[in-house]
Amino acid sequence: MRFFKPKKLHIFATSGSSLVSLCVLLLGLKTSVTYYLARLNRKEVKRNQESPPEAIFAVMDKPTYDKSVAYTLTKSRFEILTDVIDAVVLVTLLVSGILPKLYTNVMSFGHESSAWLGALFILVTTLLLSFVSLPFEWYNQFRIEAQFGFNQSSLKLWISDKLKGLILSLLIGLPLLAGILSLVNWVGSAWWIWGFILLFVFQLIMLVLYPVLIMPLFNKLSPLPEGALKERLLALGDRTGFKAKTIQVMDGSKRSAHSNAFFTGFGKFRRIVLFDTLIAQLSEEELEAVLAHEIGHYRLGHIPKSLVLSFLGTALSFGVIAWLATTPWFNPAFGFKAGVLAPTFLLLGLVGSLVTFWISPLFNILSRKHEYEADLFAKKAMGNAESMIGALRKLSSKNLSNLTPHPWYSGFYYSHPTLVEREASLRKNS
User: Fold this and answer.
1) How far, in Å, CA of 387 to CA of 16, rounded?
2) Which of 121, 123, 165, 358 has CA atoms 20 to 30 A from the CA of 44?
3) Is 375 a catalytic residue?
4) Degrees to nearest 5, angle at CA 316 with 332 and 15
5) Cα separation of 342 and 247, whole Å?
6) pLDDT per position as a tens digit, 355-370
7) What counts of helices (H) and strands (E) characterise the chain?
8) Is 217 a residue whose pLDDT tops 90?
């Protein structure tokens, strides 16, 4: 397959150059806004550190608060650094011609229409980008997280996780991508409809299989031992109309001191998973409140709503890919032949965030609304607000949460309301 260099595509040179320039402009704007919001947030955190609100000391003592401030500032500076590096890498990929050359080399092993080679190109590029980020992931885990007492992982375990992820990408990601790309040859221009249906069905299947087949590769899952806590949580499920197949404890502490709780699966395959760190940090009543909050998401229909949004988003993405692949200007702008699907998939994955970044606050608004509703469900299920407030305060303290974010920053990025906002909501009409 011959390499379509940008200078050969003189017909689309102007529009191609404009598109690349637009992407670079949007990337610069996104990076600037990211930096500005992070700077606002750091200034707000520092301002409050000088004279902390009295309410803070109901959540954590002064040494813990100072540590949370240091953690927030350190993470913020590091995230800005990685954002800038990510932007430089993306610009390099878009303007250097590296991607078309890589595509040419991969496709030289077979025919240009090979779905497997197209999928391999996408996967290889994605893996190469992940290799670039490895040093930063290592620094975050073994320097920043370790500095603040969160890292529990060993280098051996960290490398093992990366290798397992690579193998799973090859065993699952490659056939899935090849199957989607093959649809062009099977159903023609309607491929994108069947493509997003295939992907969505795959995601639903993985909701069931992930906790059974994938999660145990990384973590040990054990049934919650018999006793007062299990009886309490099962009784909560009974009175809230929530039946789970099992309650499991995950050994999250072998990687991090951070804590969590979540549901996996659906229908009769539904199960509750509690991090061992969460069980260690909270009282039984507080654990019950946290679980009531999670049940609230289920009982209030938040999960089906999220699935519908995901379904629509997937359909829209596939439709956009199908349209862009057939335009005479999108692929050629980046050095690829028009009508070739695999590069379009990759390119939209690379530049799509330049658009979705600006609409992400809308989804965060919806997410925060759901969190408020789940909190109130937990309050009603527990018969009081204090158990949920106690859990939130302890989790904020143990995880060194930022208690004083700038409103613009939290409004743009946070999927959960701040602790102050959640407490105010829970205490309302108490």
Assistant:
1) 58
2) 358
3) yes
4) 25
5) 42
6) 999 999 999 999 999 9
7) 19, 4
8) yes
Rounded distance between C-alpha atoms, residue 204 and residue 224, angstroms: 26
Amino acid symbol at 230: K
Each residue's pLDDT tens digit, 18-59: 889 999 999 999 999 999 999 999 999 999 988 888 888 889
Query: How far is residue 310's CA from residue 333's CA, in Å, rounded to a whole number?
Result: 29
Question: Residue 222: phi, psi to the nearest 5?
Answer: -125, 145
Burial of 342 (0-12, 13-18, 19+ CB in 10 A): buried
Closest CA to 292 of 388, 226, 386, 194: 388
Residues 119/174, Cβ–Cβ less than 8 Å: yes
DSSP 8-state class, residue 54: G
350 has a pLDDT exceeding 80 = yes
Report the C-alpha gap between 132 and 2 in whole angstroms: 28
3-state class (DSSP) for residue 171: helix
CA 188: distance to chain centroid? 33
Per the structure block, which two tokens stand in for 291? 């679980």
pLDDT, tens only, 58-93 = 899 999 999 999 999 999 999 999 999 999 999 999
Can you tell me which residue has the tokens 């999960």?
303
pLDDT of res. 15: 57
**Residues 235, 241, 247, 251, Cα dihedral to 10°:** -110
Q: Which one of the listed residues 145, 288, 371, 375 is annotated catalytic?
A: 375
In the three-class reduction of DSSP (H, G, I as helix; E, B as strand; rest coil), residue 401 is classed as: coil
In single-letter form, the type of residue at position 3 comes to F
Convert the pLDDT of each residue in 51-67 to its tens digit: 888 888 889 999 999 99
Residues 44, 294, 371, 373: which is the catalytic one?
294
Residue with tokens 């199960």: 271
- Matching residue, tokens 């490895």: 134
Distance CA 362, CA 411 (A): 10
pLDDT of residue 293 exceeding 80:
yes
Show Cβ contacts of residue 87 under 8 Å, excluding neighbours closer than 6 positions. 27, 28, 30, 31
What angle, 0 to 180 degrees and rounded to 10, lies between the N-to-C axes of helices 353-382 and 302-326?
A: 170
Residue 218 has pLDDT above 80, yes or no: yes
